[in-house]
Amino acid sequence: MSPVEKGEEFLTKSLKFKNTSERIEASREVKALILDINEIYKTNKDQKLMDLMKDLTLIKQKIEKRLKGRPLTS
To answer: Residue 36: which pLDDT band, with cuts at 50, 70 and 90?
Structure first.
């Protein structure tokens, strides 16, 4: 399965992560997918690949935001 297919599959699957370890795994998986797709993008400059990377980046940011939690207020 190519990185592009894996990225599209990740976009379609449910993003409900029950615990912290699942969130960490998902964040690492998305990061790896983005880097793999970026290597392909460097060779052919396909706009669809850029759009896919942008969508995956948004998901990654949401996951990491959830991992960091809310800042403590004093």
So the answer is: very high
Instruction: Report how far apart, in Å, the C-alpha atoms of 57 and of each of 10, 23, 60 are.
Output: 12, 14, 5
Decide: 61 and 17 in contact? Cβ < 8 Å. no
Distance CA 4, CA 53 (A): 9
Tell me if 26 sits within 8 A of 34, measured CB to CB.
Answer: no
Angle at 58 between CA 55 and CA 62, to 5 degrees: 145
d(CA 39, CA 45): 10
Amino acid at the residue 68: K
- pTM for the full model? 0.81
